Amino acid sequence: MLTPRHQALLMTLAGMTVGVAVFGTVLAINGNGDDKQSNKVVTSQTPPTTTPRGDGLQADSLQYTAQTFGTEKNPVSAEVPSTWKVTQDGQRPRFLDPTGVWQIRFDTRGSSKSPDRQVSDRERSIQERQLNVLSRDNGTLVYKYVDDTRGPRMGLSRWISTDNGDSTAVEITVGGRPQDEAALRAVLERATQTLQVSTNRPS
């Protein structure tokens, strides 16, 4: 039979055992909570993006259709992007995309000036802020500027001759943003390659 002293000692040991067990349980719970919180912090982090935006007009996304303009006696035709709609007809037609960002326009009135002279005259006449001429070769003027409302813009103007460069038959100009350069060049080349000019044009 246990004496009162032995009973008190057993009760003390039992209390210590329970205390250690409870303390261990608390540590385990807290430890798990810390792990979960740590996981949340790690998984909530987003790695930096290195993929370019690629928000420019894509040349391979364009489809083309033939358009005829000019006059009934002296028609001119060329292929333009199929979704770009005519906003001005006649001898100076303009085709604009639905968003209003890109365009191609023609001037079929002709001129006695050579394409090279046209390039020089146009370069001097452009009244745009921060004009930067990129090239002026082979009857083609390529330039950038800043528009007051639309921001950075890019233009490519080409003058086509049908008499070995003595005069100009048609002017083609495409416009957009600097990031659209590759597509703008593709549109200009397509229009140039498919251009059909009437042989009845006055001399």
Automatic annotation (TrEMBL):
It comes from the Bacteria. Residues 33-57 are annotated as: Disordered. This is DUF4245 domain-containing protein. The lineage of its organism: Bacteria, Bacillati, Actinomycetota, Actinomycetes, Propionibacteriales.
